[in-house]
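Thread title: Can someone regenerate the structure for this chain?

I was given the following input by a collaborator and told the matching structure tokens would be attached. They weren't. Posting the sequence so someone can regenerate them.
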Amino acid sequence: MDWTLEVVVIPVSDVDRAKEFYVDRLGFALDLDDTRADLRVVQTTPPGSSCSVTFGRGLHPGEPGSAKGMQLCVSDIQAARDHLVSHGVACSPVRHMGDAGWEDGPGGRWNSFVFFDDPDGNSWAVQEKPTD
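Best answer:
Regenerated them for you:
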């Protein structure tokens, strides 16, 4: 039996600002924007992913910005960083884990990362995934 991760729900303070960030800046697909009574659900999906990122009003009891450690994988870390920067997303340089901790520059297999936060401070890592 497969157990697939399909949705991650994150807390945000401003749903429209989060929607603009995830759709217009990051380039996630907008799957749903639905409002019913006191509930608003916005579901977005990163290109090529089976797992969606959902946020809204009345969905998550956590404090905005409290989601940490979420990770996206890409085949080209520099291209991903260039995309983020060109869309106005503040992010780290490409980094890798070295003998003394985090060091600037790409690392070996599975060891190249870029880090950024959404407007509320929810933290993301982007990791380069080998293509072979």
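Helices lie at 15-25, 77-86.
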